[in-house]
């Protein structure tokens, strides 16, 4: 008979097994977690942009190449030379206001620091990369303010920062959109904290971020941000009142919110007010030029791009390595895709997270999506006719940053439910959550199988119903894109399956919290696959080295202008302006409407015909001495002399061009600007004979002796915002400077101010008496000056508020503890 083993004597104390906390749990408990998180997402950002970070190259951005480099090079050089911001850009479109017309991020402090520290070509890229990082950090802070755990907030931040909506904006170089997207979560963070605590300093923080958003400067994105901020304030005000029934609290919060808006507007006054006045009165977007429903709905999301929100890559892309976009827009160099995992987990957040604020985020996301569809649905008429300023905006799809934000927050709520409640919730809810994940997996697996087996047939079926007008080129692109759709569907199915098994095993306690955190890294498989298509680097010397024609023009142009007729042969319509040569046209999109009308709008129809033949009357008036052609297209005007013909480029000299400053002893008044332009275009019209004005002047010119126009009129000094002209007149005359007319320009004859009139519908002129004189045109904007004062006072107000409400209380607390 076998002996029984004796049991060891009980020590008298019961041994309790305690599971060791994971590394992640230890990090969450650390008071420095936000620093660790910032370092982690910084490393992820560097990995994504490694081709730029570990090189001396430049990030490719189409608009950056077109105008961004020129704008910022001009600004940086001027600032370093004068210690101030230029007020006038004389190099494109006959001159235009630098601040008022929005030449990029002039006063935005973050990008300003990068431009002052790094070489410009590197600074532009570092600014974009930093804001991808900043988007993740700000989203984390925002989610924490809304009560999400560190894990949930961390994943929400990663979803938001790497959403292709944000990263793809690198390709078109839309830095302002990226800046606003990165800053927006901070507005919601301060607003939420302020609504909870009624603390004055939280609303000062809200106002400060609103001001920074306006300074980015992207007026349309700032406007969308104010929609979201205002609607969330009303949502919280109403829900708070229904709970507490306190009118005094509602009044206090309303007053603090109004204060925040005022602080934001005053902080940004240095850019906002001059820009607002300009857009309302003088820009082509003022109604004098471009506008209408077709303009407002241009670059709307379409049905293909809508499906691309769920099926990555459905509509294809236009990128450096791929040209498969087949949607209804002319082209698409960015994406509105927010990631599939935020959508899936966002659904869980809506279904299971116990926080009624989720309904606001769901509503905001749906509103943003509906607006982004623009002309694709008739619902946009409601926005167009009921909401102020929508008629003057375009590209409704840029509002999708609010969709990405909303579903990143909802996804964080979904993660919160899974990580904290799915193990303890009722069995029916737990099973429903897992069933949602399983059904989503099965649906995408079936779609992947169908597109793998019959992709071309499905594409043809879709197009026959939703896109019968598709062109042959886009049809070919759609067929080429089928393999990417197949890969995307299989990838989504696999990712959904992985999330399903992670959630199931976590709910069954077979894995720990680290597995939930891994969902964030799974999302990178999806988003980085799309992000990488929009990240390209290149050697800036390939685009911004001086072509031999530049030196030729610099030696021969004098005070005249150049007309680039090569299109985009040099990669940028502002190419010659980058080298300090004044162009009659260029690339901007917000030039003065009066000048835009004179040159014939975006097609420059008053300067050149469809066959490439120059129209000399307006060119002569604007002082265009040199015309640059691609030498494959011969000049059709035999009165012009070829002066350069090398490396594919030909330059023709226009001997008929007027001096940049010239004199006329007679005038005619036409109240209608279009009538003036029609007369100027006539080849028989001689601008020297009489000045065309829009109002009767208080100055009366006279005829010179013998009727001859022999006098001196020489530009002796020309700087951005200042022109000095030496005159010797035999009779009183109008002196026209063929730069764009704009109200801040003042004229002084021998130091005495005189009236500036608008000549030829777009240029500026002043009356000068006979004799020897100095005529000065000086740019002096009272709006710029007062706006600057308002901004400086607001900065001081914010600083004092921070000292009194943050620094002083902490100092007193530390002294009390000590």
Mean pLDDT: 92
Protein structure class = alpha+beta
Span of the ends, CA to CA: 76 Å
Number of strands: 19
Can you summarize the main beta sheet? 5 strands, antiparallel
Instruction: Give the spatial strand order of the biggest sheet.
Output: 12-13-19-15-16
Radius of gyration computed on alpha carbons: 32 Å
Low-confidence stretches at least 5 residues in length (pLDDT < 50)?
1-18
Secondary-structure topology with pairs:
Blueprint: H1 23-29, H2 33-48, H3 50-53, E1 58-59, H4 62-82, E2 88-89, E3 96-97, H5 109-117, H6 120-145, H7 150-161, H8 164-167, H9 175-197, H10 200-214, H11 219-244, H12 247-267, H13 269-281, H14 293-296, H15 303-307, H16 340-352, H17 357-372, H18 380-386, H19 400-420, H20 427-466, H21 472-480, H22 482-507, H23 513-531, E4 537-538, H24 541-544, H25 548-556, E5 561-564, H26 575-578, H27 593-599, H28 616-621, E6 624-630, E7 641-646, E8 649-653, E9 661-664, E10 667-669, H29 673-680, E11 691-693, E12 712-719, E13 722-729, E14 733-740, E15 745-749, E16 752-754, E17 757-759, E18 763-768, E19 771-779, H30 782-817
Parallel strand pairs: 5-6, 10-11
Antiparallel strand pairs: 1-4, 2-3, 6-8, 7-8, 9-14, 12-13, 13-19, 14-18, 15-16, 15-19, 17-18
Helix pairs in contact: 2-6, 5-6, 6-7, 6-9, 7-19, 7-23, 9-10, 9-11, 10-12, 10-30, 11-12, 13-30, 16-19, 16-20, 17-19, 20-22, 22-23
How would you characterize this protein structure?
The protein is of the alpha+beta class and 818 residues long. Among the domains are: 546-653; 661-780, no CATH class. The protein contains 30 helices and 19 strands. It has a 5-stranded antiparallel beta sheet, with no helix packed on it. Strand 17 and strand 18 (763-768) form a beta hairpin. Helix 10 packs antiparallel against helix 30 (782-817), helix 16 packs across helix 19 and helix 20 (427-466) packs antiparallel against helix 22 (482-507). The model is unreliable at 1-18 (pLDDT under 50).
């Amino acid at each position: 008979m076998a002996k029984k083993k004796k049991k060891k004597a009980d020590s008298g104390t019961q041994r309790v097994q305690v599971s060791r906390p994971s590394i992640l749990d230890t990090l969450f408990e650390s008071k420095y977690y936000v620093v660790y998180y910032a370092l982690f997402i910084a490393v992820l950002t560097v990995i994504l942009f490694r081709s730029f970070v570990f090189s001396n190259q430049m990030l490719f951005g189409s608009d950056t190449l077109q105008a961004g480099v020129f704008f910022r090079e001009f600004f940086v050089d001027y600032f370093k030379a004068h210690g101030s911001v230029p007020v006038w850009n004389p190099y494109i479109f006959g001159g235009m206001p630098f601040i008022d017309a929005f030449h990029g991020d002039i006063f935005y402090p973050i990008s300003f620091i990068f431009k002052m520290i790094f070489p410009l070509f590197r600074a532009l890229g570092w600014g974009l990369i930093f804001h991808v990082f900043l988007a993740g950090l700000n989203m984390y802070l925002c989610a924490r303010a809304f009560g999400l755990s560190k894990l949930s907030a961390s994943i929400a931040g990663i979803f938001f920062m790497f959403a292709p909506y944000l990263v793809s904006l690198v390709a078109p170089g839309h830095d302002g959109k990226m800046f606003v997207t990165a800053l927006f979560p901070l507005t919601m963070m301060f607003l939420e904290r302020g609504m909870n605590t009624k603390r004055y300093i939280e609303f000062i923080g809200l106002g400060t971020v609103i001001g920074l958003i306006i300074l980015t400067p992207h007026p349309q994105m700032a406007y969308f941000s104010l929609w979201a901020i205002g609607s969330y304030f009303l949502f919280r005000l109403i829900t708070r009142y229904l709970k507490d029934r306190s009118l005094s609290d509602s009044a206090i919060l309303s007053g603090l919110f109004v204060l925040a808006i005022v602080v934001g507007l005053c902080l940004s006054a240095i850019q906002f007010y001059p820009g607002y006045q300009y857009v309302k009165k003088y820009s082509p977007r003022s109604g004098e030029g471009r506008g209408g429903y077709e303009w407002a709905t241009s670059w709307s999301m379409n049905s293909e791009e809508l499906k691309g929100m769920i099926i990555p890559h459905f509509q294809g892309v236009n990128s450096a390595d791929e040209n498969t976009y087949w949607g209804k827009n002319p082209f698409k160099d960015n994406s509105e895709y927010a990631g599939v995992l935020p959508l899936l987990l966002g659904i869980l957040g809506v279904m299971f997270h116990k926080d009624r604020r989720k309904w606001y985020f769901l509503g905001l996301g749906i509103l943003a999506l509906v607006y982004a569809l623009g002309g694709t649905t008739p619902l946009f008429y409601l926005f167009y006719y009921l909401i102020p300023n929508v008629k003057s905006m375009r590209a409704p799809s840029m509002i999708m940053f609010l969709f990405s934000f909303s579903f990143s927050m909802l996804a964080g709520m979904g993660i919160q439910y899974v990580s904290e409640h799915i193990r303890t919730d009722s069995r029916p809810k737990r099973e429903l959550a897992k069933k949602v994940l399983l059904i989503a997996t099965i649906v995408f697996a079936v779609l992947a199988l169908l597109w793998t087996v019959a992709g071309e047939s499905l594409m043809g079926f879709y197009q026959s119903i939703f896109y019968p007008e598709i062109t042959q080129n886009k049809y070919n692109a759609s067929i080429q894109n089928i393999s990417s759709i197949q890969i995307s569907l299989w990838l989504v199915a696999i990712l959904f399956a992985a999330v399903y098994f992670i959630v199931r095993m976590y709910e069954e306690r077979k894995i720990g919290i680290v597995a939930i955190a891994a969902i964030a890294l799974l999302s990178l498989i999806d988003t980085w696959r799309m992000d990488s298509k929009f990240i390209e680097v290149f050697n800036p010397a390939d685009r911004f080295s001086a072509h031999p024609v530049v030196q030729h023009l610099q030696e021969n142009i004098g005070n005249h202008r150049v007309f680039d007729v090569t299109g985009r042969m040099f990669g940028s319509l502002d190419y010659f302006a980058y080298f300090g040569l004044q162009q009659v046209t260029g690339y901007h999109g917000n030039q003065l409407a009066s000048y835009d009308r004179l040159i014939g709008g975006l097609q420059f129809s008053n300067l050149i015909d469809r066959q490439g033949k120059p129209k000399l009357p307006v060119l002569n008036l604007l002082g265009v001495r040199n015309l640059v052609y691609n030498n494959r297209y011969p000049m059709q005007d035999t009165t012009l002399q070829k002066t350069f013909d090398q490396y594919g480029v030909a330059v023709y000299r226009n001997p008929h061009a007027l001096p940049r400053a010239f004199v006329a002893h007679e005038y005619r008044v036409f109240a209608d600007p279009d009538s003036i332009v029609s007369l100027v275009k006539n080849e028989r019209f001689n601008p020297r004979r009489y000045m065309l004005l829009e109002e009767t002047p208080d100055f009366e010119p006279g005829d010179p002796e013998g009727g001859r126009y022999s006098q001196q009129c020489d530009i002796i000094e020309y700087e951005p915002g200042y022109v000095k002209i030496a005159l010797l007149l035999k009779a009183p005359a109008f002196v026209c400077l063929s730069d764009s007319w704009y109200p801040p320009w003042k004229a002084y004859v021998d130091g005495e101010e005189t009236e500036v009139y608008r000549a030829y519908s777009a240029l500026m002129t002043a009356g000068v008496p006979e004799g020897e004189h100095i005529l000065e045109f000086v740019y002096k904007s009272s709006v710029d000056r007062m706006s600057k004062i308002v901004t400086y006072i607001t900065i001081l107000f914010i600083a004092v508020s921070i000292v009194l409400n943050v620094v002083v209380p902490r100092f007193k607390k530390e002294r009390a503890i000590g």
